[in-house]
Fold this sequence. Notes:
Elements: H1 2-10, E1 20-22, E2 31-33, E3 40-43, E4 50-52, H2 55-61, H3 91-102, H4 111-135, H5 150-161, H6 183-200, H7 204-213, H8 225-236, H9 245-248, H10 252-262, H11 268-271, H12 278-288, H13 291-302, E5 307-311, E6 328-332, E7 335-346, E8 353-361, E9 373-379, E10 385-391, E11 404-415, H14 426-462, E12 464-465, E13 468-469, H15 474-504, H16 510-535, H17 546-555, H18 563-585
Parallel strand pairs: 5-8
Antiparallel strand pairs: 1-4, 2-3, 6-7, 7-11, 8-9, 10-11, 12-13
Helix pairs in contact: 2-4, 4-5, 6-10, 10-14, 10-15, 12-13, 12-14, 14-15, 14-16, 15-16, 16-17, 16-18
Amino acid sequence: MEKLSEWLINNLPDNDQEAVIVHGDLRIENFVFHPTQARVIAVLDWELSTIGNPIADLAYACMPFYWPSGTPFPGCSNDIAIQDVEGMPSCVELISTYSHCRGLHLPLPNWTFFLALSYFKVASILQGVYTRALLGNASAENAHKYGGSIEPLAETGLQLCHRKLESSKASFPWKRGMFQQSVLGESVLQQLREFSKRHVYPAEQEVAEYYAANVQSTLRWQKPPVIEALKHKAKAAGLWNLFLPAVSGLTQLDYAFIAEETGRCFFAPDVFNCQAPDTGNMEVLHLYGTEEQKKRWLEPLLDGEIHSCFCMTEPDVASSDATNVECTIHRDGESYVIVGKKWWASGAGNSNCKIAIVMGRTENKHLPRHKQHSMILVPMDTPGVKVIRPLTVFGYDDAFHGGHFEIHFNNVRVPVSNILLGEGRGFEIAQGRLGPGRIHHCMRTIGIAERALELLCQRAAQRKTFGKKLYEHEVIAHWIAECRIAIEQARLLTLKAANAVDTMGTMAARKEIAMIKVVAPRMACKVVDCAIQVYGAGGVSEDLPFAHMYSMVRSLRIADGPDEVHLSAIAKLELREQLKNSLAKL
């Protein structure tokens, strides 16, 4: 204990460490959990609380992972192996999740100090318990047993001082295999599945009937009442804004599994406030918005009070090369004036769409062409904003998603404070927006493909032709096999991309993102097409979801950039890496 005390004194953290209220005895026994949801509703036993660094609480909670074998654990009758408890997160996962939620970089500062301090603290407490046992005034009958724990705990603290801790450098590894969710992610996914089974899927018929009844009415641009009711339930259950790591505490890898589940039902993302284009716009505001912009627009978007649209694509130029964008944003005193035409502005038909993010040219010929565009916030009720017409995708107006509209900006004037990040930063913002956003599309696309294959298999097992069930015909059996192979391949590549975003960042993961943008929609088109073929004429009717599915996944091969653009980018990145590797060998 004296040696450990000496080491702690000689390795005190710098005085600039943050000072907050520290619980002092943070362990699972002091948590009160919600009876049905995966969340803590109270923390008890604050008698050891003090002012200090919050990492001290995390280190204290992680002590069981380093606990000396054979040493009784306070409150437990037998020796424990916490790693073997089903559902218990690993130490690495706890540290990673904590760091991710707080926006800290690994390794955590002074982690070894706080862990060693925790063992010194517990050993000191147990010394007091043992002393009271010797004096005969201990409250616990077995208090005398803790006398033998003090020296092993002090030795463990000393050992931790002098050895390298892998967990302090962890970067979201997954203990149960490659591309596995964290414990938090698994819990949220299970909760979402149960919620969907109980509330979302049973509402599919009611939602379909609402749009069928209002196909010629302006009511089709409004959400059905049942959706609004489900949103309140999801929000109350904590299944809200799951796409945004800073809010949900989930990684992109966690969210990959969750988004796939929501992709199985076309309106499920809206129930959980995880629908495009709002998710991408919220990411933009979260990453690049000023405090004023966040307060006015991000907060109500996160609350689900309003919706938004994104205006980038133009009818008169080839928008696959976004430097062609002709919409102008020029400064006039304390205002910016926007002039131009946009189309495929998804969500603009929603009566609650209150804000548009507009990409336009703030040309400065002295700068490179990728520095001549900006993004600006334009309230939809600003004079000069003209919503011209809804566009259709294979005949569908996608009213549920607010449609896809052509919008004209006729000398629209907004305050200078509405610019995002600054003039010339448009492409920088676009890359930041489209990284996770593209992954979200691919994740949901895999969910669509899974639903289509599920329905395909049901039909193949029920229907007979030429005296045999459909699946008994070799061609159908091969389709089923090929669809399963394609889905698994796309899922693995998508999970790899999500993991790359988590561990390396969006820019470093741009090749993986581009690859899944090509692979996932192509795969889903193939699976849905097979399902249509198995259902025959019914497959192209509105009695089944395949026509709508196909319209969605086929359009994704153009949205966020056509396949050809992504393939060119992949080739350039691959050639660059190959050249770099070749030069390294010389």
